[in-house]
Write a structure and sequence with these properties.
With 265 residues, the protein is an alpha+beta fold. Helices cover 31% and strands 21% of the residues. The chain contains eight helices and twelve strands. The strands form three sheets. It has a seven-stranded antiparallel β-sheet. A three-stranded antiparallel β-sheet has the order 5-11-7, with no helix packed on it. Helix 2 packs across helix 8. The longest helix is centred in the first third of the chain and has 16 residues. Bound molecules: succinic acid and manganese (II) ion (MN). The site of manganese (II) ion has 3 residues, from loops.
């Protein structure tokens, strides 16, 4: 559960970083399964213009290890605590930021997309990221503009050409002004780090030209009463199963990873 000062930090800064929250055993299975998913040809695996994987949507529905992460109490409980009600999965994705070819994510707010494309009433959905690789200053870390979540939904343009994935992005004067006020942070650290950030927090990332991939899983947990009213995107991008998530056992992912390892020996 989050402490009072962590809750305060989340509300003031718009994010909270908890380094090394998942163990090496838990992360190793999530990471090897992510790599196997990227090798599959399926519509949920979105690719860069180069053909390298960009993101794999809805992996919690077709991969057991990711299914366990999606209902892990370490993910679900803090968000229930912050929202004061049960949550359901609005989106689940594993972003690759592949070595050498991982492309940029332009500056944006996620709630801008959830409101415009999915008809989500309020910014009461939370992004939670789990680092599957080491996130370094050099391999395209996620960059956040602290306190930018206090500005509500900002004007954005629909960028359908810069990258392979359409996104509502912010213009340079807007980002410049917000950065003058809040600066930019890029949480880095070992695999297993956990990052929570507000749906209106401005964020983005640069390309990765290093040999080090930077995989991050992102869950978007939405308060059940805030279910989306006007879905326009495929079900596997913006889910319409609004049933509350029932958290599983805290050690289920570890047991699964150990069983997997023994079977391979
Ligand atoms: C996102 O904003 O959805 C992803 C950004 C990233 O992984 O760099
Ligand atoms: Mn985003």
């Amino acid at each position: 559960m989050l402490t009072e000062s962590q809750v305060r930090q989340f509300h003031e800064e718009g994010y909270l970083f908890l380094p090394e929250t998942f163990s090496p055993t838990e992360v190793s299975i999530l990471k090897s399964e992510a790599e196997a998913i990227y090798r599959q040809q399926r519509p949920e695996v979105w690719r860069e213009k180069s053909g390298a994987p960009r993101t794999a949507f809805a992996a919690h529905l077709y991969n057991e290890a990711h299914g366990l992460l999606a209902r892990h109490p370490r993910m679900i409980r803090p968000v229930e605590h912050l929202f004061g009600e049960p949550v359901y999965m609005h989106q689940y994705k594993i972003n690759a930021k592949a070595s050498f070819t991982g492309d940029v994510w332009q500056w944006h707010q996620d709630y801008g997309t959830w409101a415009r494309d999915d008809g989500m009433p309020e910014p009461r959905a939370m992004n939670i990221a789990v680092f599957l690789d080491e996130v370094m200053p050099i391999n395209g870390p996620l960059m956040l503009v602290p306190r930018s979540h206090t500005h509500g939904v900002l004007a954005a343009g629909h960028d359908t050409s810069t990258t392979s994935y359409p996104l509502w992005t912010l213009d340079e004067p807007t980002v410049t002004k917000l950065v003058e006020e809040g600066g930019i942070v890029a949480p880095t650290g070992k695999p297993g780090g956990l990052l929570l950030f507000h749906g209106n927090l401005v964020h983005g990332s640069a390309g990765n030209i290093t040999p080090y991939p930077r995989k991050i899983v992102y869950l978007t947990l939405n308060a059940v009463s805030n279910f989306i009213r006007k879905p326009t995107r495929p079900e596997w991008i913006a889910h319409t199963d609004f049933r509350p998530i029932v958290p599983g056992d805290a050690d289920a992912l570890t047991r699964y990873a150990e069983g997997f390892r023994q079977a391979a020996e």
